[in-house]
Structures are given as C-alpha cells and as structure tokens.
Design goal:
41% of the residues lie in helices and 20% in strands. It is an alpha+beta fold. Helix 1 packs across helix 3 and helix 1 packs across helix 6. The protein has a seven-stranded antiparallel β-sheet. Strands 1-2-3-5-4 form a five-stranded mixed β-sheet, with helices on both faces. The termini are far apart. Strand 8 and strand 9 form a beta hairpin. The chain has ten helices and twelve strands. The protein is globular, with a radius of gyration of 20 Å. The model has no long low-confidence stretch (mean pLDDT 95).
Length: 284
Amino acid sequence: MIDAEISKSVQVEVAVGVGSYEQLVQALEEQWETAEGIAELLDVEFARHLVAQEEWPEVTDCDRLTAAFRDLDVAGITAREHFSCCQRCGVAEITEQGVDRGYVFYHFQDVRSAAAAGGGVCLSYTPEQEIGEEVAATLRRHGLEVDWDGSTDARIEVRMTWQRRRHGRLAAHPSRADRPAAELRAIYDDGPMEPMTLQGCLDELMRMRPIDGNFMVFQAPSGVSFQVMWRKGPTLWGEWPDPSVKGSRGRNLSLPEAREMIMILAREGRSAADDLGGTEFTPW
C-alpha cells in the first residue's frame, strides 16, 4: 500500500509539468527512499494528467504566466519559471547569472504549492517600486489577477488555476498507447528530434528561456524546416535553411511572428519567409 503522502507527492510532481517520467521516478524514489509502487503510481498519474489536459481551456493561466514572463524578458526584466529551490537561493543565483534592469521568478517550493492546491504562485522580484509595478502591469495585461499592495517588502501573488500541459517526452509514460498525431518534428531543450503536436511546439517555444544560444528546430513532413534562436538583447532570430540554394533566409522575429511561422509550417508544410518579408540571405 502506497503511503498517502507519497501518493500526493506523485500527483504534485506530475502536475508541476517539469521532468520526464524517468526523471520523476528517480527523484521520487530517492526522496522517499523506496522503489515500492512509485513507478506504477506515476504511470497512472501521467495517464490521468494527459486525459485531464484535453479538457482544459485553449489558453490556460500557466500559458498566460509564461507569455507575461517572455514579455518581461524582452523588456529587460529577467523572468524565470521553476527557478532555484527557494527565494534566498533564487535571488543569489539570478543575480550571479546577471540581469539587465531587474528580475522576477518563482521557485520550486512556489510551484509545488501551486500544483498541490491547483492555485496561484508568489513571485520574487527586484525590490524596486518601478520593477514591481511593471511586473504587475504585465501580468494583468495578459489577463492574470494580481494581488500586490505595492510594497517592495511583499511578494507579488498571482491568483490563477495551475494547469501546465505536458508534451513530447514530458508526456511519455510506459502504458501510453494512444499518442496524438504529430504535425511536426522538433528539437527543443537540448533533446533529440522528436514528433510533436502543433500545440506542443507552440508551448515549448514560449517556455524556452531567452538565453543567448537557446534554440529550437521544427521540421514538417514535407522536409521544410524552420529554426529559432535567442540572441543577446534578448532578440529572437528565425531562419529557414534551404539546401537547394545552399543557404538560409532569416530575420529577427517577435514571438507572435515566430508562432505564426510555426503554424504555417505545420498546416501547410511550407516556408513562410516570403509572407513575412524583410529576410536576409546567408550562404553556407
């Protein structure tokens, strides 16, 4: 019989939405110092989670939070999800990594609390009034409810429903038989090329941290590819490699433009460089 506390921790880790089945098996077995029943329980919980996410809204609060964080990144406020073990370590780590105008993040304890309750998260940020106000305004602009009294001594609370989708290898588990049809193949998060749904590609694009050199590659069944990479700024570079002309066409993109390019690739199997315009050719 699995202990109720272990069972709850399994549910929480799957709901957090970070970590593959294999990674969670290892982490939970180490945490609870037992292998009894954990792998089997995780398999069941993964299956339950994937069924549940099919009924979620097209845009969840977690999607809104991620989109708000990307806007803050581009505006010069380093924004990180699932960052560090606690607030003190998070502040030290994000400062050491280097920030531009400021930072905002939530840590592992925050996200586990949110996943356990299905509710919101508290954000840590550079303790400056201007930064706090910009973070709060950006969250509200993305349709999130913010509870903050304006004091830099208080964390910013985001009232939300925690619903984070799993895709690709983060959705794989032993008993999964029916896999959704994949519109594209993709490389993301330093992993191998793998089949991905369009929704999965769009979600992973938004979740990719704007760190210089982070990239994704998308390939349609037609063989046409589109790839994006974050550069210093941060700015997002998108390009279409074309072996027939031994070169690539590309330009800087906004995230909405990159999403549109991926949707055209998935639905029509073609490059949308001509639709976009303003691209430059780089010979190989």
